[in-house]
Design brief:
The structure is a single chain. By secondary structure, this protein is of the alpha/beta class. It has two domains: about 100 residues, Glutaredoxin; about 140 residues, Glutaredoxin. It is built from nine helices and twelve strands. The protein has a five-stranded mixed beta sheet with strand order 1-3-2-4-5. The protein has a five-stranded mixed beta sheet with strand order 8-10-9-11-12, with helices on both faces. The longest helix is centred in the N-terminal third of the chain and has 16 residues. About 30% of the residues are buried.
Length: about 280
């Protein structure tokens, strides 16, 4: 099987093996009796041919592999799912022209936009030891104070490590994350992979370069409701809540969910951190 060929999936195991390779993947759920699916197929082929080596394309006949379609919650065809780094970051359904499909793939980050300029790298947040002070944390992140009191920024920066999204599935796991905020500021990320705005927020959080406690609200609605109950922050998606000493000190949703906003909230002196620093309505 050629790596860049369009692959017809015949089992859940084959699907998982390809997805786990953590490459950008477009999954086309279709049916042989579906007219829009037949119309969409050549457009998918054009897009795949235009991005050899950069995009894997999987085709799933929902009648041939019904268990996979059911597990992926496919309710209509054609349905397209987008995967990055082994996780689904978006979905859409219905016919798309090749140009529209290319635009969607670019928006979800599976392919680079033509002439796209890379964002400046963000310095990764360190993992704090229980005894670490806020001053030593900031020093390790941004440099040490010089003789004149100014902060000395290191001349070179190490590459950003990959963000690890640790998906919370139980109230016990959520409680552990809240407890961890007693030692260091902790962020909880809520998002829905089916939502385009959520996919954009996911891409922002990939810039954190740390482990991110994450709740997939499409699968864990009860857990997202528990977050609202325990923090008093009204639920939104996508949303980030920063906790200190088990108390929410900052939250943002929708366009306010950016790596820079979250970093600023985490690094803000505790005395200045308050729920007033809320970017909930920013860029909606």
């Amino acid at each position: 099987m050629k790596k860049n060929a369009i692959v017809e999936i015949d089992s859940i195991e084959q699907f998982q093996e390809i997805i786990s390779a953590r490459e950008p993947v477009l999954v086309d759920y279709y049916a042989t009796w579906c007219g829009p699916c037949k119309a969409l197929a050549p457009n998918i082929e054009r897009v795949a041919a235009a991005h050899p080596g950069a995009l894997r394309v999987l085709k799933v006949d929902i009648d041939a592999v019904p268990d996979l379609a059911q597990r992926s919650r496919v309710r209509e065809v054609p349905t397209l799912h987008f995967y990055r780094d082994g996780r689904k970051v978006g979905a859409l359904s219905g016919f798309r022209t090749a140009a529209a499909l290319t635009a969607e793939l670019t928006r979800y980050g599976l392919i680079a936009a033509e002439g796209e300029v890379s964002r400046p790298a963000l310095r990764p947040l360190p993992v704090l030891a229980k005894s670490a002070s806020s001053r030593s944390w900031v020093s390790r992140l941004f440099g040490k104070p010089g003789a004149n009191g100014a902060t000395e920024i290191p001349a070179t920066e190490s590459p950003i490590p990959a963000t690890t999204f640790r998906f919370l599935e139980t109230e016990g796991q959520l409680a552990a994350v809240i407890d961890a905020s007693m030692n260091a500021p902790t962020a909880v990320f809520l998002h829905d992979p089916w939502c385009p705005i959520g996919a954009r927020a996911f891409r922002e959080m990939e810039q954190m370069g740390t482990e991110v406690a994450t709740i997939d609200v499409s699968k864990q609605r009860q857990l997202s409701a528990e977050v609202e109950r325990r923090t008093g922050v009204r639920h939104a998606s996508p949303q980030v809540i920063v906790l200190r000493d088990a108390v929410p000190t900052w939250n943002a949703s929708h366009g306010g969910v950016t790596a820079r906003n979250v970093r600023a909230a985490i690094l803000a002196p505790q005395a200045k951190s308050s729920m007033a620093l809320n970017h909930e309505d920013e860029a909606r």
